[in-house]
Amino acid sequence: HVRVHCPLLAALAMSFHRAMAKYFAGRTQQTTPHIIKYCQPQENQLQAFRRQVLAPAWFAVFKGPMEKWEYMRSVATMRNYGIMADDATNCRNHIFERAMELLPEDIKTHRYRRAMRACEFS
Predict the structure, then answer these.
(1) pTM for the model
(2) What whole-number distance in Å separates Cα of residue 21 and Cα of residue 87?
(3) Which terminus of the chain is less hemmed in, N or C, by CB atoms within 10 Å?
(4) Is 116 part of any domain?
(5) Would you say 82 and 114 are in contact if contact means Cβ atoms under 8 Å apart?
């Protein structure tokens, strides 16, 4: 950023920038209205190859087995504590609290006992 100390040069610089702004603003305005037509985005050959070949191979080789391993590990951890996946969720949610109110008393009791058993084991 250059500071101009002379008022005459400052006025010239300002008018130059104003003239340039007007020039570019005038060029961006179109004289004829441009009609925007909707068209389905077409995928190129690389995107099609990625969708048809790479993505299924990535899921079959890496992502699928990794997600299965994570699920089995979490189920094994919960079984060690004697709890279910529902018992490990956050119960401070207003929707979850309402669902807990609608449960029968015997299911509430079983859930509470599983939670207490998990607290003793941890």
Answers:
(1) 0.50
(2) 64
(3) N
(4) yes
(5) yes
